[in-house]
Write a structure and sequence with these properties.
Blueprint lengths: L2 H14 L6 H29 L2 E10 L14 H9 L20 E6 L2 H6 L4 H17 L3 E7 L5 H12 L3 E6 L19 H7 L3 E9 L4 H9 L3 E4 L3 H8 L11 E6 L21 H10 L4 E7 L11 H17 L1 E2 L15
Parallel strand pairs: 1-2, 1-3, 3-8, 4-5, 4-7, 5-6, 7-8
Antiparallel strand pairs: 1-9
Bound molecules: manganese (II) ion (MN).
């Protein structure tokens, strides 16, 4: 038998043996995944810098991860549906305060981190979380790009915030909109659970202030953990009293900026039924926009998580809701030197 023939048989025998991924295999897939994000971020960074005038520019990074959910894993499928809804022809591409999303200086997209492929070669969550952090840093390397991360379940906020804080060299203030505080020490034994991400963030010292808004599913441990970490928890049952304060927030002064994490279930399920954890009594969409629009602070990064397309209405209502949150966040994050360079965007602010 020829050498080629023997190799062929050997190869087939290998395929027939149980597939035990090696560290070598994992390294290759992780390298390739990060190369994908690095090159994409370089391209978008070059484009934005070539157009000129932007000091901060939002860039989408999809992290399709759903396995750290305690209930349903559908959020892994969210990023492509959010993107589709952002550009849905039923609405125009201008944000409420007048920024043009088709301008790459406002919004670009570096694509998805291939989470499934990384997990398929046996990478565990200790390493996967590091890879997510690395991908966020690669986007931040390409100034003026700032990461606007599409989840995924809420477990991704830990590696994302960690990366932002490490890259900027200090803590940030976090505005966290959610029905849940996600601050269990661990949930069902999983320290990376989507119900524990803010415990990891606070332990790591990545946040100076953590404001949780929209909370209406919180137990004894959630309140105790909140006190332990000095979290400012604004519960829905007192929202009418807190509204004026929350609609006039000023954050991020004296630290590296503001991080905004939006769990779509902060909204009342009447506005956003496509979530894993339906919790009545939430914020209206306009409440959330008022909080975002009026917030004073330098938003250095953000995420929109927990949209579950498998629970959405047939018309994709929650996809549109998640997309509008992303659009308005993109407008909030992007800033320009020269407002007059954006003819379609008269209200570009320098804040
Ligand atoms: Mn939640």
């Amino acid at each position: 038998m020829s050498i080629i023939g023997r190799r062929g048989i050997h190869h087939l025998q290998k395929l027939n043996t149980p597939n035990i991924p090696t560290v070598e295999c994992q390294n290759r897939v992780i390298d390739a995944s990060l190369t994908l994000i690095r090159e994409s971020a370089k391209l978008k960074g070059k484009l934005v810098r070539a157009l000129g005038g932007a000091v901060a520019s939002s860039s989408l990074l999809g992290v399709p991860l759903g396995h750290n959910s305690s209930f349903l894993q559908g959020p892994a499928f969210a990023p492509p549906l959010i993107r589709e809804a952002i550009w849905c022809g039923s609405t125009n591409s201008t944000t409420e305060e007048g920024k043009e999303l088709k301008d790459p200086r406002v919004l670009t997209d570096v694509g998805n981190l291939p989470v499934q492929e990384i997990r398929d070669c046996g990478v565990d969550d200790d390493r996967l979380m590091n890879v997510i952090s690395e991908s966020v840093k690669l986007v931040m390397e390409e100034a003026p790009l700032r990461p606007l991360v599409l989840g995924g379940d809420h477990s991704i906020s830990y590696p994302v915030v960690r990366a932002v804080s490490e890259k900027l060299g200090g803590p940030v203030d976090i505005l966290h909109l959610d029905a849940h505080p996600d601050i269990y020490h661990a949930f069902e034994g999983n320290k990376y659970s989507h119900a524990s991400s803010f415990a990891r963030i606070m332990e790591g010292g990545y946040a100076r202030r953590l404001l949780q808004v929209g909370i209406r599913s919180i137990n004894y441990e959630g309140r105790e953990q909140g006190k332990r970490f000095g979290v400012e928890q604004y519960e829905m049952r007192t929202f009418s009293r807190d509204r004026d304060f929350l609609e006039n927030l000023k954050l991020g002064e004296g630290v590296k900026g503001v991080y905004i994490s939006i769990d779509v279930d902060c909204l009342d399920p009447a506005f956003a039924p496509g979530v894993s954890h339906i919790e009545p009594g939430g914020l209206s969409f306009r409440d959330v926009l008022n909080i975002l629009h009026n917030l004073q602070g330098d938003v250095v990064a953000a995420d929109v998580v927990e949209f579950n397309p498998q629970r959405d209405t047939a018309g994709g209502m929650t996809a549109m809701v998640a997309a509008k949150l992303v659009r308005e966040l993109a407008a909030k994050m992007s800033k320009s030197y020269n407002p007059w360079e954006y003819p379609e965007t008269p209200s570009f602010d320098l804040a």
